[in-house]
Write a structure and sequence with these properties.
Number of helices: 11
Order of helices and strands: HHHHHHHHHHH
Radius of gyration: 21 Å
Structural class: mainly alpha
Distance between the termini: 43 Å
Largest sheet: none
Helix content: over 70%
Number of strands: 0
Shape: globular
Length: about 300
């Protein structure tokens, strides 16, 4: 009995905080990088929770328009400590960009060198550039707060499209960007249908099942929002008219013009919030093999 009492304490599983401290002592740099990457998923979740909430309020006619990422985060400035929250989101998005670089360049997910793997890693690199651009936009947003200037996302999108249209072959470049956004929308919806969705999360079966349903709804809604956004950009390139382009906020507003538009927009808004919640699941449970980056790909079951 005395021996049993001595063995029992060693079988007690340490708390999450204790495990983090032990890992930090064992591999400080790797653990710090992983913590930064997980903070990136938290920032990504906060962005989509904000976009979904703004779209939900617009569907209920409580605000005049849905907002894209910058407009949704700009609303935080009205909250206590809002500017500090935007600053933290900016740092988190830069961290998420770094994680995408590790995935794309150093194959942190150990996807291998097949065509499918290279396409996936290429998409991760583009995703990293997008989130890095969003982080830079937040940096610019922080600089304009003292001027009390509201961000006009649609004008910014059209200005960017107009500058690309001025390039030689700019129309084709804009059309290619529109096709890419359309492909991303379709890809999100296809991914939501995957039987292996959420299987990579390192958690118990019930948590994985719940996260899977939330994530599927989120990816479906994200894909549905990307489709009109990509179509508008494609149309702008085809007609060489920058005023036909729109951002995510404008694409969400366009859903309202569909039959039963307000219920559709409300469903998409809830789905975007679900995508944000799923990002928080990823922040907690997604495996990150940073110590083995660049090694041979692991065979998946």
């Amino acid at each position: 009995m005395h021996d049993a009492l001595q063995v029992a304490p060693s079988t007690v599983r340490p708390t999450a905080w204790r495990r983090a401290v032990l890992r930090l002592r064992a591999a400080p740099w790797t653990t710090l990088v992983e913590m930064a990457c997980r903070a990136g998923y938290v920032a990504r979740g906060a962005v989509y929770l904000s976009i979904g909430l703004c779209a939900w309020l617009a569907a209920l006619r409580l605000t005049p328009h849905a907002r894209g990422s910058i407009g949704a985060l700009e609303a935080w400035a009205q909250w206590p400590f809002g500017v500090a929250m935007i600053g933290l989101a900016m740092v988190g998005l830069f961290a998420f960009m770094g994680w995408r670089v590790l995935q794309a360049v150093f194959d942190a997910d150990r996807q291998g060198r097949s065509l499918k793997a290279w396409l996936s890693r290429g998409g991760q690199m583009v995703s990293g550039l997008v989130y890095g651009g969003l982080a830079l936009s937040l940096f610019g947003l922080l600089e304009t707060f003292d001027e009390l200037r509201e961000v006009d996302e649609q004008a910014r999108t059209r200005e960017m499209v107009a500058s690309v249209l001025a390039w030689p072959g700019g129309g084709l470049a804009v059309m290619a960007a529109g096709l890419f956004v359309l492909a991303a929308g379709v890809g999100n919806m296809v991914q939501a249908m995957s039987p292996r969705f959420a299987q990579r999360l390192d958690c118990d079966g019930e948590t994985r099942r719940q996260a899977g349903w939330i994530g599927r709804l989120g990816y479906l809604a994200r894909g549905a929002a990307f489709l009109p956004a990509g179509a508008f950009v494609l149309q702008a390139g085809l007609h060489a008219r920058a005023n036909e382009a729109t951002g995510l906020g404008g694409a969400l507003d366009a859903l309202e013009s569909l039959p039963f538009g307000r219920p559709v927009m409300a469903c998409v808004a809830l789905g975007l919030m679900a995508f944000g919640v799923y990002a928080l699941f990823e922040a907690r449970f997604r495996p990150m093999r940073l110590s083995s980056t660049g090694s041979r790909p692991r065979s998946e079951p």
